[in-house]
Structures are given as C-alpha cells and as structure tokens.
Amino acid sequence: MSSFDGLFSLVESTLDSSAAHWLREHVEVPEALLRFSWHEQALHRVWLAEALNLCLLHTLVNAVPDGYRYVEEQARGGRKVVFDHGALRTVDWPHNGELPRGRQAFARLLEPLGFTDVRTYPLTKLNMTGWGYRQMDLPEDIAQFFVSELHPGRFSETFQSAVTRVVSSSRDPLGAEHVSILKRLQLTRHCSLPEAQALLPGLYRAFDRQHGAVLETDYRCLLDESAEMAWIATEGNRFNHLTDRVADLETTVAQQRALQRPMKDSIEVSATGRVMQTAYRACAVTRGLVDASGHYCEHQVPGSFVEFIQRKVDPDTGRLDLNFDSSNAQGIFKMTASKT
C-alpha cells in the first residue's frame, strides 16, 4: 500500500469509501507528506493531521452548497483546491459542561498532532481573541487552524446567563482511550495505525456542536449582543469556514462574481499587503430552537461558508507568509453576522 493509499484508507475508516474517493479527486494532498514514511506500527503525526483536515473539509463542503459547487467546478477545470486553513469558534467560559474552557478544548488535541499557537490575534470589535495553530512539521503544506475564543465576561449579565444555559450541557467527545493515544503522540510523535483509526473519529467529532437544546429566548438574547455567540449557540464548534489558497485572488473573485456567486463585497488586505482574503456569504441552515411552550420550532440561521486566500512570499524570510491579520479576520467573521 502506498503512503497516500494509507492516508485515504484512514480517512475512509472515519467517513466512508465514497467520501475518501471524492477527497482524493478534489483536494490537493501535499507531496511533502512523503518525507514521512507510512509505517503502520509507528505512524507519524503528520498523517493524522492531514487525515483530520481532509475529514473536516469534506464535512464543511457538504454543509455549504455553494462551496460544494465551487470545488466541483474547480475539479472540472483541472484544479484541486488547496486547503489553507479552517476556522472554529469557542467560548471562554467556566461553565462549559464537560469541555475544557475555550480554546483549550482544541489545544489538547491539536498540539499532539504537531500544531502550535504561533500568534495571538486580538479581535477587539467582536470581544474575541484568535490564535493561529500551525503544524510545525509541514507548516506550509498542512492546513492551519484559526481558533477563536469569545469572552462572555465582556458582555452584559443577561448575556452571560444565556451563555451558561447554552454551553453548560456540553459533552466531551474524547474518551479515555483518545486521551491516552494523544498523550503518546505528544511524547513520541507516533502511534500505531490501529490507534490512529481509534483516535481519528473522536478528533473528528470534536468539531461539532457539543451542547444540547437551545431556547429561542436565549438565542435572541445572544444575537442582540453578539452574532458570533448566536452562531455558536446553533453551530457549536463546527468549522465556521474553510479556505482555498489560490494563486490570484482578484482573478478568482472576478470569476465568481461573473457566475453571480454570493461573494463578499470587498477583499480584505493585511497590514503587510501579503495576505488577501475574501469569502462567500454564509449559507442559511435550518436549526431547531425551543419556544416558550417547550416545542422545537425550525428557524433559518447563518451556517458556514467558504473563504478564498492569496498568500505572498515574505521578502525577509523568502517563505510564504502564513500569518493571519486581525482586521482581515474581523471582516471575514461578518459573513455569519446576518440577522434572520
């Protein structure tokens, strides 16, 4: 079995064969992975990191119809998408059910996979903070994670009470076996293939909504003060967006607008001028909220979206600029801020 066959077999063990085949046909898998041999008795962490990213990309693309169409169109044009980064939101709050507080719920699984929080990004306008988690074995090749925390302590007491009611029922998707394998990965950077097959589904489930039913009154209360926390109430820790790294963002935008796709009005440009981003507007999803009578009522709320990014080389290092930008991020976050 080749290394890439092994990778997609690992993905298949968490998703299914059709999903693994689709990913192989539509997503660029970095050749740099081959620097790390595929050994079933001692599987390097880069293979798990890439497998997790592929699984998460597949889930988001299938949740965003415009994103799925975009990826299919790219494939028909002879291009595979290049997964640059995925973004998720957490809540910096002590009443978080079984989950560790805020980003720690994800640091505990990303760090054993080789990801390190390389920079902090104040998202002051949103009362949030972001961290860029970069895979240190293959930083330019394996997609990064942009993990943000919302700080309820900066909002009203009414808002804080609603946050507690929403997130206090959160369950922990990681069991004792998962934690044990993660500790081994942290120490040795390797695990066996059977351990990887046992661990990956738990990691995959972590990127989901872990809390229970949400009251409509709580959702409205959160929405009044923070569209981002309202989004967390319905979507949890799912990928808020994933990003395709493109060679020429202006050309991509022109093509998408010509197709009348739901594009953001402008391109966000970092302070350095080396990182440029824009996105589709978030898709609408149907979620159940509990009304005053205790009945589930379906509502249309913002879901996730696909982003596009162009990264230029940093002349000081001669390497691709992998940083994010606080202003860019806050502009992109507005894609889920529509009130429906």
Description:
- This protein has 340 residues and is of the alpha+beta class.
- It has a domain at 67-175 and 211-336: 2,3-Dihydroxybiphenyl 1,2-Dioxygenase, domain 1 (Roll), CATH 3.10.180.50.
- The chain contains 12 helices and 14 strands.
- The protein has helices spanning 3-14, 17-26, 45-63, 65-76, 104-110, 157-167, 176-188, 193-206, 216-225, 227-235, 249-258, 326-333, and strands at residues 43-44, 83-91, 115-123, 128-135, 144-150, 190-191, 241-245, 268-269, 275-279, 284-290, 296-302, 305-311, 313-314, 319-320.
- The protein has an 8-stranded mixed beta sheet, sandwiched between helices.
- A hairpin with a 4-residue loop joins strand 3 (115-123) and strand 4.
- Helix 3 (45-63) crosses helix 4 (65-76) and helix 7 packs across helix 8.
- The longest helix has 19 residues, at 45-63.
- The mean pLDDT is 96.
- Its cofactor is Fe(2+).
- It is an enzyme of class 1 (oxidoreductase).
The strand order across the widest sheet is 3-4-5-2-7-12-9-8
Share of helix among residues? 25-40%
Tertiary shape: globular
Q: Compute the separation of the termini in Å.
A: 50 Å
Stated plainly, the CATH topology of the domain at 67-175 and 211-336 is called 2,3-Dihydroxybiphenyl 1,2-Dioxygenase, domain 1
What is the level-2 CATH architecture name of the domain at 67-175 and 211-336?
Roll
Radius of gyration: 20 Å
Mean pLDDT: 96
Number of helices: 12
